[in-house]
Amino acid sequence: MTGRRVPRRDDPGALDLFVMSDAAPEGAYVPEEPPASEFVDGYPGETPRTAIAVGTLTQTAKDVIEGAFIPLWVRGEISDFKSHRNGHWYFCLRDASAQIRSVVWKRDQRGIPAAPDDGMQVAAFGRLTVYAARGEMQFTVTRIEAEGDGLRRKALEITRARLQADGLLAPERKRALPRFPKVMAVVTSPDGAALHDIVAVMRRRAADVRLVVVPAAVQGDTAPEELCFALDQVNRWGGAELVIVGRGGGSREDLWAFNDERVARAVAACHVPTISAVGHEVDFSICDLVADHRAPTPSAAAEAATFSRGELQAELRKLSLRMSGATRAVVRDRADAARHLGRDLAGAASGQLAVRRTALQSVAGRLNALSPLSTLARGYSVARGDDGATLVSAEAFRPDMPFELIVRDGVVPARVTGTPRRSTP
Amino acid sequence: MTFEQRLARLEEIAGELEGEGVDLARALTLFEEGIQNLRAAADELAAAEARVQRLVERADGSFDVIDRE
Asked: Which of A205, A316, A341 has the most B C-beta neighbours within 10 Å, making it the best mutation to test the interface with B?
């Protein structure tokens, strides 16, 4: 070919390519070189003698087609889906009238929540390409959205089932949050709304806490890796008593990193209790299921994690009241007890007196009964000798012996005038 | 003593004071201790303030916590 003139038509690009790929493979049929004069107004492939190589055709088609289409969304139904063992996905995208072979390269799959199933109605985003070696058109897909959010639902179900199988969703795994964490890690974007809200809540509540921000992208392709890395950093650092992981509100795609299985496992692997705070109230994420506590928003996470100064002051006031109340009660009880004791003693003393008075009266009665005075009162008298001894028998008397008679109201001196004699019984 | 420990101690004190058979001397001692704890906890609260920092990992794998803003 050296020295041959290159024919020029209206597509300089195609012709440049023609030149580049003009070398015929070994053993291929190459027509005899035509005389240079015949080329002046002809083009490659115009005649059998100027036929181009197959590779030239498909390569040219590739360049023309690939240059003509920008990446675009195409809708259709998935069929013949195959996940090849080299990791790439192959399927047909079709509708009632046509179909096109499609591929998702392994490296592009992380932008797609889950592998589509046959029969799914999808919109696929990609570039129309030509597989030159086989002369086939192929749609090279990098994103797929299924009707009714089918892929995301499928992905959530798969992830959830896998985490469940590993026991990571078990209620008994949930740890209680520390009551007064002093140091809290916040895994989120350093300039996102979530951090702003959390800091604002902590400041407003004057919570006695150190927030340690551990930066990570919270959306985009790198978000799952960055979140995992940040959570791992928190573990390796070991200084936090609690981790808040989350981000502010956004579209479903924006929040998707928090449904990533790797992120969920990293949350589960945290050494300290975790609060998941992703998006708004209505947003649900796999991280929410794995974390020890789910907060509906980042602000709510901040509130769940700390007491405000006001709350704690109220708590102190309550304790103060309990304490002084109880102490007063103890003092009052003791005073009451003392009063009761005094009363009891007085009561006991007066009771004792009555008993003694009764005893005394009874003794007095008995004494009275025994007293000779009462006998005397009935008209009897007692004879007593000089020595004071009572003379109770006739033998105690001697003739002319003086003695005295004791009567009821006095003593009468007396003398024995006859001879005493014993009366005969 | 941390705030949490103080609060726990205060709970204990209140509990014991509310219980049966605390003698007067013990009650007054507990009350005294409780008042001291209350005062310390309240002072701590008055000084409370949220700080925002940032975790920085150095090349050797050690960590720094630096103030933000």
From this structure: A316
CA-closest candidate to residue A168, choices A284, A292, A341, A13:
A292
Q: Give mean pLDDT, residues A24-30.
A: 63
SS (H, E, C) A133-190: CCCEEEEEEEEEEEHHHHHHHHHHHHHHHHHHHCCCCCHHHCCCCCCCCCEEEEEECC
Are A189 and A103 found together in one domain? Answer: no
Is the pLDDT confidence value at A168 over 90? yes
Q: Which residue has the tokens 């004069």?
A: A37
Q: Is there a contact between B20 and B27 (Cβ–Cβ < 8 Å)?
A: no
Least confident of A170-184, A272-286, A314-328, A343-357: A343-357
Distance CA A211, CA A302 (A): 10
The number of domains in chain A is 5
**What range does the domain containing B14 cover?**
3-67
pTM for the whole structure: 0.60
One domain, residues A116 and A239: no
Contacts of A326 in chain B (CB under 8 A): 14, 17-18, 27
Residue type, A37: S
Q: List B60's β-bridge partners, or say none.
A: none
A1 located within any domain: no
Q: Is A332 on the interface with B (CB under 8 A)?
A: no
Tell me the per-residue pLDDT of A315-350, one tens digit each, with 9 for 90 and over: 889 999 998 888 888 888 878 888 888 787 777 777
Q: Is residue A3 part of a domain?
A: no
Asked if the Cβ–Cβ distance from B50 to A199 is below 8 Å, we say yes
Pairing of the two strands A72-83 and A274-278: unpaired
CATH code of the domain containing A100: 2.40.50.140
Give the gap in angstroms from C-alpha B56 to the nearest C-alpha of chain A: 8
Give per-residue pLDDT as tens, B25-43. Answer: 888 888 889 989 899 888 8
Q: Cα-Cα-Cα-Cα dihedral of A105, A111, A113, A118, to 10°?
A: -40
Expressed as residue numbers, the domain containing A173 is: 169-307
For residues A328 and A284, state if they share a domain.
Answer: no
Q: Is residue A163 in a domain?
A: no
Residue A160 lies in a domain: no
Amino acid found at A88: H
A263, A210, A264, A196: which is closest to A239 by C-alpha? A210
